[in-house]
Write a structure and sequence with these properties.
The complex is a heterodimer. By secondary structure, chain A is mainly β. Chain A contains eleven helices and 51 strands. In chain A, the strands form twelve sheets. Chain A has a 22-stranded antiparallel beta barrel. The two termini of chain A are about 55 Å apart. Chain B starts with a helix and ends in a 12-residue tail after the last helix. The chains are: A mainly beta, B mainly alpha. At the A-B interface, α1, α4, β23, β25 and β26 of A face α1, α2, α4, α6 and α20 of B.
């Protein structure tokens, strides 16, 4: 309650400031017009604002705009768009009338001015004190995809976006300026139209997005407090009133074909048999084909039956999208309606994704009250059957035999091995359907208390219902149950945000400008889940829809609730339009943390100086703009699972005779922690923004350092403690880095060729600064103290997976493939026959993998492990080129990831049971020094992982797009106001040292990456 | 100012809507730790301690790797051994790749401390729980007694593998990463003290089948005393400990609560269900259709269930997989066989050493092993599957030896060998594969339409190689399968790893052997012989169809006082308890030299490498790495 009083006090102070100004109401008129480029073609998504007010809109596809409710009088109207210079006009607005202001924009490199979407409002870029990067709709549109975030992949320095998977409908992972937290969430906050959303933006249609602004430093993210600790992605959707004095329709459609690449080459039966025979000789057993092959394999071999299983499941994927929009405006009401249908068929049989989105926005002005609501509904279905495991199932096959029997029916085990399932059987017999329904609403009301003083309420409920229906037919997949089994798991998440804020934007005298915001906000999250499963479902058609007809039901339900409350005050003061100071104070309370540690205060300050505008800088006439800025602030992270402070008991089951006996035990991975508190990040940022040669070349350079303390750490414990893990606030990490963005207009002939280049480069260094342990025993050189159980080393980046080996005990990849530090034995080759005496000392024999005995004690043990690199790139970069000539445009984006080590999960297993990658291997007569002797069984080799650490450095052309905008005369014949056709090739070229997987994903599991070719058209009527 | 009046209510409304949001947490889908100190909580915490047992007993690779591999009786089969590739082959060979990072060490260590911590929560909070309602004084006493028993069991399992331990007698309060290691002596004191308390608190019988009883605590204490007796630091208590072990074992034997199951085979399997191939010889797969999990001989079992609520990963018994040899898939071996639920999924982790087959052969036959010799001791046939009934669509093997080219299928007849002894039967189906305990001539093989596997030698200490499969001999991949853990009731098909058969931790048969071993220690050989003869008479074949005549009173089955040596006790334990997850601990009980000598003598793969340090398991590296402050002591040599 103390905080409530504080709030009221601040409120009183805020109201006192504007209260000094004029309080007279005004009559209004409207400003309308068209924005075109130098060639006279309409420019869409340009922003047009009335200077000194918060009034502003974005132009429609036809370049038109309308700004209603403009106070009468002489007004300066400014039009801006990224890549163009600013255009200004002075108009006289008469009450109740419309005045025309048309603009012609000239091309420029990245604009250092213009509005920037910051938290809870927009701000002039000139005065922004934080590090903010913006991507506009035009750039997003260049990479048509299901997920708008993918379109800015590689575009923004310091923002690392990596595919979460390559199945249709898979989401992406976003890291802004590296990784701070080991255990708590590293995902940035995504805010759509001012409302933080729950989860990713995969449910949003890229066509509805106007701009994506990324807030990277404390000054920019501070107003989101704890939720913004990992950066903030602000998404502005078209919302209501994108311009146009009359109703208009837009249709956008494309189709594409997709092919996987980076598939390993698997051994054919001849190669496989040769490997088996080598393995048999090595094991000292008969290499007679009759002895090493199973009955079915022998028969298939004799009959010459062979199957390339990857080819069998591969297909050309297709992606289609149709978008129809309509918007309009009446006197006081604006609306926007759009619908989109997207579907994608994966590059393997059985993978499908489709999505419908509908978006409706309405905005109404009544006197001083403005109300708006924007609602988006999404329905999607991701059908993946066996999922990524399908590719594994295909590669598990040895290549012998046919997928079908003599009657054309699918064989479950084509080569006779009871554990190798025919992937087609899985496609036929397994269903895994994820259905999502999401309703996201953003509603606001603003009430103008005084001129330049608004009261605003945002309300944003975000409701998601997801159901996962899973069905497995008899003998369809490992482990091969003979009955039909199904499950139906669903959850319903409701998150809502309610923010009340008072916003002040006033000029005081001629030289002072103040923007101030006071906010009280709450966010609540409630998730309920229900999972059901059954065995012995009587017939196939029931799938997971009639579990009640089965037997052996299992049922669980669960509830999780969390809440967050915040108070925030922000003041931005600008002097002479040249010096800006911003200060933010935010107090956050989170339910997940321990009583007494729930509330914390985060202060932030930032300054910006338009150095280039100072009179003494005029002599540097090549310099058209120069801005310095700096910020320092603290943010926090509380995104851990609920109920961890209390140490909930774990449910156990046992039976006494036939009686099931439930029990409760201390949870070995979650002891009660009554001290669990906020993880805090203090960060400093220094930035320079400049423009030279009349802003033909512009750029931004940022340096930053982030120190994270009270790290929320899931810590592995010695088991004598009674626990195996505990979540604690321990340890410190640091991120520091440099980000550079450059933009240049290389060629700009009027009515001719225009060529623009954007370059971004970012370096981030992540390291653990301190850990809970101070032990140095057993730590590698230069990396102590260390926590070997978790793979954490001071001076090294963060490692996930709670282990240092890349694979867990069941051979699966452990942890996040992008956040691993490798610590393993050092591969030095293969034991050769000449080494056999030495090999014997280590219990090895020629043909086995040889690792270094670093301390020379004659034993290979934990003391011989060394750091083998990590998955954090030293630098990332991108180069974007765009050439326009007349109505043609051609753009290409190249991206680079350099200086990191990934683990190749495709290292040849050389095991004699399942499929193998083509490779050389050790035999007494042809002794390889790279791969060991093959092995008769499907079991891992000693030190097998040591061969897998490879340099992941690579570059790629991410996409190339060629577009043609129909001249107005031709478009007119189609009765269209604007029309564009385009073709895009994605991932046409990737350069890396390893042949067979995409190093960007960090590992080789899952579905392969694909390249695609796409053709689309965008028409506005 | 009028418009300001509109604003203030709007603002107030907003604040009202949000309220001062409640940031307290209310746990709904689970329970907080205070629950344990309630009457029902006490029972639930005790139940959870039992549930913890499943982390080791029946836990597939962990249990056999640490108790059966690398012993005189079991060695690695092809899935662990060929090419030396499966990375825990070192538990069999003791080769240099065996380190403190070895597989399963940490899982086993963690299992022990999980059970101990769960028992400690009961023992910490239980005494304060007031008696009332369903929590009678008897129930409360029992729960505390059960917790003492389970804690002692976990400490006993750990101390037998690692030696000295960290002793926790109270549940963890908060998180501590410091740990000290106490001597082996003090661990045994804790075990003995816990078991004495358990004996005082536990009832003789429990209303719930499977809860620890007074007899179970006495039986465990007998074994703990027997084990402590030999310890080099315990010379002062050597005789008293043997005496305690003998007395306690006798108490259990004479308690009247337990009795030997008359037919040894019924300990593990039922008789074949009507629809299954008839198996009068009792040498086929283990059919659980007519099997009762509860029998009078099991003193304490870790229970499993086929109930779907428990039938999930980590809750089921994986032991049905480990001891099975390959019977399917290889036409040079037995084309008539395909993998099925009855015969099990052959993981081929362990195969009997020649020594184990020899220990059985010493008592199995009523005369010289060979065609026509009658079965004397049923324990081999009760323990091993040696006959497979053809189940495949393919024809029964044409040719049953390397040189055979043809052979007619046999239908519906009781198969007897050339001398008339039953070696399996096939009512309505063919016999595809038979393992004999002796070598036969090629002409004998050729006279049979089924595949015959034989030992390649009868010398107990020679393993004549891995590549004998093609010659019709027992090899790395093809060998008689231990059927004690076979589970054809498991749900989900032949490939399912989830079994529901109980895991007997202690049974009365072993109690006689504990008594016999204590008697040898006390130099009372006649007492030892008497104990063993009880088991021998039970094991003797009772007549057709398993054997031609009853041998229940055949003097050939009996042992004499003169035979009673520690080595003989170990041989007898092998026959009685083969594959019951005790062997490694049994071998190390009499001391380091005994352990090394037995393994070197009978396990040719361990022989070149085994050293003094292998007498103790290395403390898991995770424990060493995780302890802060004073470093955690490793065992010598590791």
């Amino acid at each position: 309650m103390r905080d409530m009083r504080l709030w009221r006090l601040l409120l009183g102070l805020m109201l006192a400031v504007p209260g000094a100004g004029r309080l007279q109401a005004q009559e209004t008129g409207q400003v309308a017009g068209t924005v075109t480029n130098e060639q006279g073609q309409p420019v869409a998504t340009a922003s047009v604002v009335v200077q000194g007010t918060r009034l502003g809109v974005v132009t429609g596809p036809d370049g038109k705009y309308v700004i209603p409710e403009v106070p009468a009088g002489t007004r300066t109207v400014v039009a801006r768009l990224i890549g163009f210079g600013v255009a200004t006009q002075v108009v006289t607005v008469t009450a109740g009338q419309s005045v025309v202001a048309d603009f012609r924009l000239t091309a420029k490199a990245i604009e250092l001015q213009g509005p920037v979407v910051v938290g809870y409002g927009t701000q002039e870029r000139r005065t922004v004190t934080g590090a903010v990067s913006t991507v506009k709709a035009a750039q997003i549109a260049e990479l048509p995809t299901s997920n708008a975030i993918k379109a800015i992949q590689g575009r923004v320095p310091g923002v690392d976006i990596v595919n979460g998977g390559n199945k249709p409908g898979d989401d992406v992972r976003i890291f802004i300026r590296g990784i701070r937290s080991i255990t708590a969430n590293n995902n940035p906050l995504i805010v759509v139209d001012g409302v933080p959303i729950a989860g990713g933006i995969g449910d949003f249609n890229a066509d509805d997005i106007v701009s994506i602004d990324i807030l990277k430093d404390a000054a920019a993210t501070a107003i989101y407090g704890s939720r913004g600790a990992n950066g903030v992605v602000l998404i502005t959707t078209k919302g209501a009133g994108t311009g146009g004095v009359k109703t208009q329709f837009t249709a956008d459609a494309y189709v594409t074909g997709q092919r996987p690449y980076g598939l390993p080459t698997m051994m054919n039966p001849q190669q496989y048999l040769a490997m088996l025979q080598a393995a048999a000789r090595y094991a000292g057993v008969s290499d007679d084909p009759a002895s090493v092959l199973s009955a079915q394999q022998q028969a298939a071999y004799a009959a010459g039956q062979a199957t390339d299983w990857q080819k069998l499941i591969e297909r050309t994927g297709q992606q289609r999208s149709v978008h129809i929009g309509m918007n309009g405006i009446s006197e006081n009401t604006r609306f926007n309606l759009s619908g989109n249908y997207f579907d994608q068929t994966g590059t393997a049989v059985g993978f499908d994704f489709n999505r419908f989105t509908g978006n409706a926005s309405v905005d109404h002005v009544q006197g001083r009250l403005r109300l708006g609501v924007s609602a988006q509904y999404t329905h999607s279905l991701q059908a993946t059957a066996l999922g990524d495991g399908l590719w594994g199932a295909a590669r598990q096959q040895t290549g012998f035999g046919s997928p079908y029997d003599a009657n054309g029916l699918i064989l479950a085990h084509p080569d006779g091995d009871a554990l190798a399932w025919n992937p087609l059987k899985a496609v036929q017999g397994v269903r895994n359907d994820v259905t999502r329904d999401r309703l996201f609403v953003s509603a606001f009301g603003t009430f103008q208390l005084l001129e330049g003083v608004n009261l605003r309420v945002n309300f944003g409920p975000d409701y998601t219902h997801q159901s996962t229906g899973h069905y497995e037919g008899p003998d369809a997949i490992f482990p091969g149950h003979t009955d039909r089994e199904g499950s139906y798991n669903q959850f319903a998440n409701l998150q809502y945000t309610l923010d009340a804020m008072l916003q002040v934007s006033r000029d005081i005298g001629k030289v002072h400008h103040v923007d101030a915001t006071l906010l009280y906000g709450i966010q609540k999250f409630r998730s309920s889940a229900a999972n059901e499963s059954a065995q012995f479902i009587p017939y196939d058609e029931a799938l997971y829809y009639s579990l009640g007809q089965g037997q052996n039901f299992l049922l669980t339900t669960a509830l999780t609730e969390t809440a967050l409350a915040s108070y925030m005050g922000r003041v931005v003061y600008t002097l002479r339009d040249r010096y800006t100071v911003s200060a933010t104070l935010r107090r956050d309370g989170a339910s997940q943390l321990a009583p007494g540690h729930k509330w914390v205060t985060f202060p932030t300050v930032g300054v910006a100086w338009q150095l280039g505008d100072e009179p003494f800088m005029r002599r540097f006439d090549f310099l058209s703009a120069l801005k310095l800025r700096g910020s320092y602030g603290v943010t926090g992270n509380s995104s851990i699972d609920a109920y961890q402070t209390e140490g909930a008991l774990a449910r156990t089951l046992y039976n006494f005779g036939s009686t099931t006996a439930g029990g409760y035990a201390p949870n070995a991975t979650n002891p009660a922690n009554p001290n669990l508190k906020w993880e805090k990040t203090a960060q400093a940022d220094l930035g320079v923004e400049f423009g030279i040669l009349g802003s033909r070349i512009t750029g931004t350079v940022d340096w930053y350092r982030q120190n994270t303390s009270d790290l929320l750490l899931q810590r592995t414990l010695p088991q004598t403690s009674g626990y195996s893990q505990a979540l604690q606030n321990i340890g410190k990490t640091r991120n520091s880095g440099v980000e550079i963005a450059l933009s240049s207009i290389n060629v700009n002939h009027e009515h001719g060729i225009r060529w623009q280049t954007d370059i971004s480069w970012a370096h981030n260094h992540n390291e653990i600064v301190a850990l809970a342990v101070s032990d140095t025993v057993g730590c590698p050189v230069g990396a102590s103290p260390c926590d070997l159980n978790n793979g954490w080393f001071v001076g090294q980046p963060i490692n996930t997976g709670a282990q240092t080996a890349p694979l867990n005990s069941t051979g699966g990849f452990a942890g996040n493939p992008l956040q691993r530090v490798w610590y393993d034995y050092e591969f030095v080759g293969i034991w050769q026959q000449s080494d056999s005496a030495e090999a014997a000392r280590y219990g090895a024999k020629p043909g086995q993998i040889r690792v270094a005995d670093l301390n020379g004690d004659g034993v290979i043990n934990a003391k011989d492990m060394v750091l083998q690199g990590n998955t954090y790139p030293k630098w990332t970069a991108s180069i974007y080129n765009r050439v326009t000539w007349k109505s043609f445009d051609l753009s290409a984006l190249a991206s680079f990831r350099w200086g990191y080590t990934i683990f190749n999960t495709y290292i040849p297993a050389l095991s004699g049971r399942f499929g193998n990658i083509v490779t050389d291997y050790w035999t007494p007569s042809a002794p390889s020094n790279a791969n060991p002797s093959p092995n008769l069984n499907g079991t891992p080799l000693n030190y097998g992982t040591t061969r897998g650490y490879v340099d992941g450095s690579h570059w790629r052309i991410r996409n190339i797009q060629l577009g043609y905008t129909l001249p107005p005369s031709l478009a007119g014949r189609l009765r269209a106001t604007a029309a564009r056709i385009y073709a895009t090739a994605t991932e046409p070229f990737v350069s890396y040292k390893y042949d067979y997987f995409d190093p960007e994903s960090g590992w080789a599991g899952g579905s392969p990456v694909y390249r695609s070719l796409l053709i689309g058209a965008n028409v506005t009527f | 100012m009028k418009r300001l009046f509109y604003g203030v209510p709007a603002l107030t409304l907003t604040l009202g809507l949000g309220g001062c949001v409640d940031l307290g947490e209310k746990l709904v889908s689970s329970l907080g730790s205070s629950y344990i100190a309630t009457p029902q909580g006490l029972t639930d915490a005790t139940n959870a301690t039992y549930a913890g047992l499943r982390g080791f007993y029946g836990r597939g690779e962990t249990d056999y790797a640490l108790t059966e591999l690398g012993t005189d009786t079991w060695t690695a089969a092809d899935q662990v051994s060929a090419g030396g590739a499966q990375n825990w082959i070192y538990y069999d060979t003791y080769e240099p790749t065996y380190t403190s990072q070895g597989s399963f060490l940490d899982a086993f260590w963690g299992w022990g401390y999980t059970v101990i911590n769960r028992a400690n929560t009961v023992l910490d909070q239980g005494p304060q729980v007031p008696v009332g309602g369903t929590l009678t004084q008897a129930v409360k006493d029992s729960r505390l007694g059960e917790a003492h028993f389970l804690r002692a069991l976990a400490y006993f399992e750990l101390v037998q593998q690692f030696g000295g331990l960290t002793i926790n007698l109270h549940a963890a309060q908060g998180v501590s990463t410091e740990a000290t290691r106490q001597s082996e002596d003090s661990v045994y004191k804790v075990i003995i003290d816990d078991l004495n308390q358990a004996i005082n608190l536990l009832p003789v019988t429990q209303p719930d089948y499977g809860r620890a009883t007074k007899g179970a605590a006495q039986n465990l204490l007998a074994k703990a005393y027997l084990t402590r007796a030999y310890r080099e630091w315990n010379t002062a208590n050597l005789q008293p400990d043997f005496q305690q072990a003998l007395d306690l074992a006798n108490t259990v034997i004479n308690s009247g609560r337990y009795s030997l199951v008359p037919d040894f085979a019924r300990l593990w399997c039922g008789t074949h269900r009507a629809a299954a191939p008839a198996d009068p010889g009792g040498q086929g797969f283990c059919d659980l259709a007519n099997y009762s999990k509860r029998n009078t001989e099991f003193v304490f079992v870790t229970q499993y269930s086929y109930d779907p609520t428990q039938y999930q990963s980590g809750q089921t018994n994986y032991d049905h997989l480990e001891f099975l040899g390959q019977y399917d898939g290889n036409p040079a071996w037995a084309a008539g066989m395909v993998r099925d639920l009855d015969n099990g999924r052959p993981f081929r982790r362990l195969r009997p050493t020649p020594a184990l087959l020899d220990f059985f052969a010493q008592t199995r036959w009523a005369g010289t092993p060979g065609p026509g010799t009658d079965v004397l001791d049923t324990r081999f046939d009760g323990s091993f599957q040696t006959v497979w009934f053809a189940n495949g669509a393919a024809a029964n093997p044409a040719g049953t030896c390397p040189t055979c080219t043809s052979g007619a299928p046999i239908n519906g007849t009781l198969l007897r060998d050339a001398g008339g002894s039953a070696i399996g039967a096939a009512a309505g189906s063919d016999t595809a594969l038979v393992y004999l305990g002796y070598q036969v001539s090629d002409s004998f093989r050729m006279s049979k339409a089924y595949r015959i596997g034989t030992p390649c030698t009868t010398a107990p200490t020679v393993d004549c190689g891995k590549d004998n499969d093609a010659k019709g001999m027992i090899g790395f991949r093809h060998f008689p399968s231990l059927k004690k853990w076979q589970d054809n009731l498991r749900v989900g098909g032949l490939s399912s790893q989830d079994g529901g058969k109980d895991f007997p931790v202690m049974r009365l048969g072993e109690t006689y052997l504990i008594a016999a071993e204590a008697a040898v220690g006390l130099n009372q050989p006649q007492m030892a012989a008497d104990m063993i003869n009880v088991l021998r008479v039970r094991a003797a074949c009772s007549g057709p169809p398993q054997c031609q005549v009853s041998h229940k009173s055949d003097p050939a089955i009996l042992v004499t006082a003169a035979q009673m040596t520690l080595d003989f006790i170990m041989d007898e334990r092998a026959r009685e308890l083969a594959g019951e997850y005790n062997r490694w601990k049994d071998l190390r009980r009499p001391g380091k030299q005994f352990f090394l000598d037995r393994i070197k003598k009978y396990n040719p793969y361990a022989q070149p490498n085994i050293q003094d340090k292998h007498y103790y398991r290395p403390i898991p590296q995770r424990q060493i790495n995780g302890v802060t402050g004073t470093p955690y002591p490793q065992n010598p040599g590791w």
